[in-house]
Every structure is written in structure tokens, then in C-alpha cells.
User: Which sequence fits this backbone?
């Protein structure tokens, strides 16, 4: 069902018109694998400095699409809790609720956990690969002084910079230009969200927000 195409969904809608359209014998109406409102939530955004393309949500497990859920946690409302093992990020809300976002996380060996805070926020951030990454991937040396924000920048449309005290952890919560990687362990430790989701999260959290990254 995850592979359900938009054409199939629209076709199901036409079949549902009943008296207006006759249904051929043997045709079974199929329910889409996701709430059709997600086509709007993950649709294109044309109010940004750079275009944010629509997400092909048929490539993403529906559990990793944005939901508001019940969430039992001792953390106060406004806290970000990252559960890398389950591939979810929670923005804690009052009365035992949270907004849950699907995430991509670090590959084995690059995972990070602990408590930090959002010390800085950035629209269309510059990406500067750390020295350790350049050593592993020398082809990134051309970006040692930074890659400007834009549609090809791996940090996507927004970034939240995580610090412990005055120390930059070098870990970020950021967007991605590869939404199909959500739910996977592919990054070098950073926490990535669909661009539409990081834009949403970014608008909800101020500088100083507490971030708890659980152990995988």
C-alpha cells in the first residue's frame, strides 16, 4: 500500500462518485495508505527564497508523516525529544500530547545522545562539513569554507544548532533534500526531517529550547 500512486488515489476518488460514474464489475475501491490531507501538508511551498518541492509521500512509510499523538514523558511542554531508535522526534505539548515527526538519524558509529539546547536557528543555512567528515570524504574539501543555503544544500530549508553550555556539539536538527531517507540511519549523526516538517518545527520552537536525544 505504501507504493500507492497519486493516480490510483485519484482513480479511487472517481470511482467513489457512485451514481455519476459506473463501477466496472470486479473493481474493488481501495483506501489510500495515508490521509489525503497529507498531499496538502507535504505539497510545494512557493513562499520561500528557494522552491520547496512537493514530497512524494508514497515513498515514505505513513508512520513517519507528521502526527499529533499521545505522549507520556516527564519533559515539560516545549521540549524536543528525539528517539533515534524509533526514528521519531517529538515536540512535547500540554496535557500528554506531542507533535511527532519522522526523522532520519546517524549511521551506526555516528549516533549521539544527550541533553542540549537550541542555541541558534537558521533559514536556508550554510553547510560547513566538519574536518572529520572531510577526512572521510576528501571530495568535500571544496566546501570547507561553507556551501551557501539553497535547494542543493544538504541542510535543507532550516537548521537548529545544538549546544551543550557554550560548546557547539556539531549536531543539528535540519531539513533534507532526500525525503525518502526519513526513517533510515544514513546521516553522519545529525537529525534530519522532511523540509516541510523542519519548517513547521522551526516556527514552533525558540532559541533556548531544551533538546533531549535518547539512546538508540
Assistant:
Amino acid at each position: 500500500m505504501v507504493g500507492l500512486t497519486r493516480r490510483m488515489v485519484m482513480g479511487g476518488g472517481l470511482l467513489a462518485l457512485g451514481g455519476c460514474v459506473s463501477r466496472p464489475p470486479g473493481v474493488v475501491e481501495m483506501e489510500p495508505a495515508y490521509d489525503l490531507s497529507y498531499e496538502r501538508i507535504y505539497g510545494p511551498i512557493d513562499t520561500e527564497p528557494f522552491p520547496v518541492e512537493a514530497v512524494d509521500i508514497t515513498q515514505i512509510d505513513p508512520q513517519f508523516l507528521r502526527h499529533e499523538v499521545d505522549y507520556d514523558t516527564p519533559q515539560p511542554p516545549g521540549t524536543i525529544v528525539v528517539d533515534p531508535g524509533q526514528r521519531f522526534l517529538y515536540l512535547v505539548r500540554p496535557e500528554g500530547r506531542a507533535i511527532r515527526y519522522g526523522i532520519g538519524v546517524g549511521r551506526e558509529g555516528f549516533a549521539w545522545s544527550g541533553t542540549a539546547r537550541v542555541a541558534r536557528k537558521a533559514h536556508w543555512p550554510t553547510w560547513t562539513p566538519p574536518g572529520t567528515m572531510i577526512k572521510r570524504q576528501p571530495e568535500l574539501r571544496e566546501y570547507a569554507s561553507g556551501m551557501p543555503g539553497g535547494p542543493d544544500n544538504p541542510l535543507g530549508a532550516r537548521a537548529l544548532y545544538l549546544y551543550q553550555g557554550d560548546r557547539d556539539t556539531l549536531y543539528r536538527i535540519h531539513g533534507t533534500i532526500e525525503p525518502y531517507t526519513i526513517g533510515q540511519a544514513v546521516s553522519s549523526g545529525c537529525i534530519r526531517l522532511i523540509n516541510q516538517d523542519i519548517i513547521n518545527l522551526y516556527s514552533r520552537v525558540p532559541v533556548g529550547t531544551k533538546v533531549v536525544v535518547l539512546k538508540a
